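Progress narrative, Year 2. Work on N-acetyltransferase domain-containing protein from Sphingopyxis witflariensis advanced from sequence curation to structure prediction during this period.
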Amino acid sequence: MSAPPTTRLDVTAQEAATICAAVRSADLSLLSPMHRIAGPEHVAGLIVLLSDPAVSDPIYDLPRPFTPDVIAGWISDARNKQTRGEAILAVTVDDQESVAGYSYFTIWPERSAAELAGAQRADAQGQGRGKMGAARSFGWIFEHLGVRLIGLTAARDNARSARVIEAAGFIARGERQSVRADGSTRLSLYWELTRDQWRNASQAMT
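Result:
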């Protein structure tokens, strides 16, 4: 399961409360017009998306098996966590409103920290969209949700995700044990990035 970043920041109660409020009222239109909060209407589309091993195999914390009950429960759990300021499950849709990808934002308000997991349909991979979408998501987490630290993991053989993460400026922090939904573990590569580092890198590119 998701775990907070290794680095621990000093966070006031006011900062944590502000982050919670931002998560509850998150504006996905700032990410793109094709983002939606996942709802019951997206269950079938998520099953189609995640049933492709090219999409789901590298992702350790997805609920399995990909059945209507399991995916509906995942969506419901994410909705409940959003009301507590702890998570956002979003989907992206194509021009036909079919699910083309998903993003799961896990937030720890009391640590001003977040984690992002997600994937896009196999036919959209390898076209640079993942890198651009990830950059938008990182900026949105820092500037809209207001957290100051993001931690990310990827499987040791997931070179594509590693390239996207490192291109965004994340700093490698070695490895950590990731716990799957079934309780098994996976040794993952681990990175961190602070909001100040993100802003400094963004200013350097302008």
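The longest helix spans residues 129-145. The chain has a mean pLDDT of 90.
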